[in-house]
Amino acid sequence: EERYRAIPRAENLRELMRTITEDPHTAGTPASRKVAEFILSKFQSWGLSARIEEYEAFMPMPVERTLELVAPEPYAAQLRESAIPQDKDSSDQGQLPTFNAYAGDGDATADLVYVNYGTPEDYLELEKLGVTVKGRIVIARYGRSWRGIKPKVAWEHGALGCIIYSDPKDDGFYQGDVYPDGSWRPWDGAQLRAIRGPVAPESWRGSLPITYHIGPGPARVRLKLSFDWQNRPLYNVVARIDGAAVPDEWILYGNHHDAWVNGASDPTSGNVVLMETARALGELVKQGWKPKRTIVFASWDGEEWGLLGSTEWASMRWAPGPITRRFWIISASRR
Description:
The protein has helices at about 1-5, 10-20, 30-45, 120-130, 150-155, 265-285, 310-320, and strands at about 50-60, 60-70, 75, 105-115, 135-140, 160-165, 220-230, 230-240, 245-255, 295-300, 325-330. By secondary structure, it is of the alpha/beta class. The protein has a 6-stranded mixed beta sheet with strand order 3-2-7-4-5-6, with helices on one face. The chain has a 5-stranded mixed beta sheet with strand order 1-8-10-9-11, with helices on both faces. The chain starts with a helix and ends with a strand.
């Protein structure tokens, strides 16, 4: 362990981070393949047995996205973040449009209802207030539950659509200075001032300069979406160090390299730690060390869409027969 601790270098993490996050690299795009090839080249340069394992998965990309307030006054949401002069990456070409993965095609116009974070508990509170979302479109704060769950819960309660926004109380000026002066989300965002109805409970109120009402209406919105429904490629990068004593028992250490856009915090901050760990263990191997069990390093693709790359890898490796290897899993969480 002492020999190992002397090897990793923080400057290596920074350099790997700069390279990987230079351009948007969403899963299913050539940019994701480019990042995978870079990670592969690094694994191989460190003396590890590594390869890219390619799969396909269903990843629909947006063709049309429309969000309009049609009453009591017209307003069309720009559905994009404004470029920040101090940050060249904020105007990168190839950025992923704002959308929720696996949203359905549709065109709906309905009254708007504010549902706080859109959790099951929030809908119970709405019932107590006598407010239904059936036949309406809901707007929910980001947080407290996964973004893929919020539309599902809304649909289960009869809503026609779901809008998710980031409230400055959770991620914005309420928390501290906004980017580029601080780390919190900058000013652009949706506002709710056209909603009336009951005033929201105190715990539901964010930090927009408005009184938070629940609705329904008189705010009425149109939400229209269409997608290009296709299978697209995934590029998992897998490296290994064979075990000397029990090679069929695996330590599986994984993160992912695909990002929703550039992905500095999520996932690259964790992925570069995985890579530097692999480099350091590779150095020990060159010095004659061998692990007792096989160590597998996996930089997955398609995680942002729903753990696609790791799921494909596991299902192709072991299904439909029984698992014949014992293995332990380590996840390199982002920092």
